[in-house]
Write a structure and sequence with these properties.
Blueprint: E1 2-6, E2 20-24, H1 28-38, H2 42-46, E3 57-61, E4 64-65, E5 81-86
Parallel strand pairs: 1-5
Antiparallel strand pairs: 1-2, 3-4, 3-5
């Protein structure tokens, strides 16, 4: 069961500049754990100390925000893609 994780530019230094990483997982939580196993330190940038996705980070399965699904327990099917999108702050 292969799933593609799209890595945002600010985190690519943790993946050897790879823009995408393939993992085998049945849930979003498993996918992030696999990503951490492959690229140590990346999960701490995505999840807080309790293991929840940080407020300023959005994670999408295909085009659906996991906050509106089942968060880290959101199931994955073979071929699903995950996108990690850090929130962008700005303005005046």
């Amino acid at each position: 069961m292969a799933n593609l994780i799209r890595i945002p530019t600010p985190l690519r230094n943790l993946t050897g500049n790879a823009p995408e990483v393939t993992v085998n997982a049945t849930t979003v939580g498993e996918a992030l754990a696999s990503l951490e196993t492959m690229h140590s330190g990346i999960k701490a940038r995505i999840c807080d100390e309790e293991g929840n996705v940080r407020r300023f980070v959005n994670v999408f399965v295909n085009d659906e925000d996991i906050r509106f699904l089942d968060n880290l327990n959101t199931p994955l099917k073979d071929g699903d893609s995950l996108s990690i999108v850090p929130a962008i702050a700005g303005g005046r």
